[in-house]
Design goal:
Blueprint: E1 2-12, H1 18-37, E2 43-50, E3 55-63, H2 67-84, E4 98-107
Antiparallel strand pairs: 1-3, 1-4, 2-3
Amino acid sequence: MRIGWSFHVEIHVTDMSSEALESNAQDLMQELLDLEAAGCGIHSAAVSLDLDREMIEIEVATEDEDENVALARVNSCIRAAIHATGGNTPGWEEAPHQVAPERLDHTPA
């Protein structure tokens, strides 16, 4: 059985104007949609923006029996989208962003 996972990621962004942050969030959403279409292994992507907290929130879903494999896939796709929009992710594994997995359901393999 494959297990559905939803991941919520919060990324704190500094040194960027509100306009640039809004544009970046839109570009990031488009890149995630492009990755979905290309078969990256994620689906149901959503990007929201909290200007007061300077925070971009990303939600994506994937399926895998192993939570660690699902997390690696999500991290890879999100990082690829960030890079495609001109961002960078040095020290991503130690960065102060939150990646919160939520087990959704069991789906047939």
